[in-house]
Design brief:
Elements (H helix, E strand, L loop, with lengths): L8 H56 L39 E3 L6 E3 L2 E12 L3 H4 L17 E4 L9 E4 L3 E7 L8 E5 L3 H7 L2 E8 L4
Parallel strand pairs: 3-7, 4-6
Antiparallel strand pairs: 1-2, 3-8, 4-7, 5-6, 5-8
Length: 217
């Protein structure tokens, strides 16, 4: 093996140091150039990148605003009905409107149903009396007009307001015919014939709506 002289050793070390220094300098230059290149890129493209990010955010916001449609599959029932379905049949409607049915009135003399127009409807004072001495002063059962008075049919009234034979419909009581009068029955006052005196006392004094029908001529 050849030994190097003392004069050769420093030159080798110097060359090594030079090579090392050149290498380091070249690395620094390359690193600096790369850094400058990246810096220029970001400096020039900064606003382009921000604009691109803004557009991407707008697209994401736009699509997230619309909810996704859920496709719901109808539940399949395991039970199948074997009964035939009945379609509703439309009943023919009549083009002719039915006429209103007038109020039937039963007269005590002929016991026939007839229809009479309404003259008036107003409130009357309603009391009750019976076929006794205390109420009528007699018990023969004959009214002022000479007809036999009947419970559920006859009523007494002021003949100047409701003449004999006038048919009235008293609210909650029913149809009555004026066949009698009374000394204390004056004005809009009707006295209804009942079965006995106690029933008349229990009836007391009431005020009811009365429908007056036109008297049959």
């Amino acid at each position: 093996m050849k030994k190097t002289s003392k004069g050769e050793k420093p030159s080798v070390i110097r060359e090594y140091q030079i090579i090392k220094t050149d290498f380091i300098e070249s690395c620094k230059v390359k690193r600096f150039k790369r850094f400058n290149r990246l810096r220029r890129f970001f400096r020039n493209e900064k606003w382009s990148i921000i604009s691109a990010l803004f557009v991407v955010l707008l697209i994401i916001t736009f699509f997230s605003a619309f909810p996704k449609e859920k496709h719901v599959q109808p539940e399949s029932s395991s039970i199948v009905s074997t009964e035939p379905t009945q379609t509703p049949t439309e009943q023919p409607t009549s083009l002719v409107e039915p006429l209103p049915t007038p109020t039937p009135i039963i007269t005590p003399t002929s016991i026939t149903i007839y229809f009479a127009p309404i003259v008036d409807i107003r409130v009357f004072k309603i009391t009750a009396y019976c076929n006794c001495v205390l109420c009528c002063g007699k018990t023969d059962g004959i009214g002022y007009g000479g007809a036999e008075i009947q419970e559920g049919v006859t009523c007494a009234a002021d003949l100047s307001v409701l003449p004999l034979g006038t048919v009235v419909d008293i609210e909650g009581i029913g149809l009555r015919t004026v066949e009698d009068k009374g000394s204390s029955v004056i004005g809009d006052h009707i006295d209804v014939l009942v079965a006995d005196h106690q029933t008349a006392l229990n009836f007391g004094v009431q005020y009811k709506m009365v429908t007056i029908f036109e008297k049959e001529k």
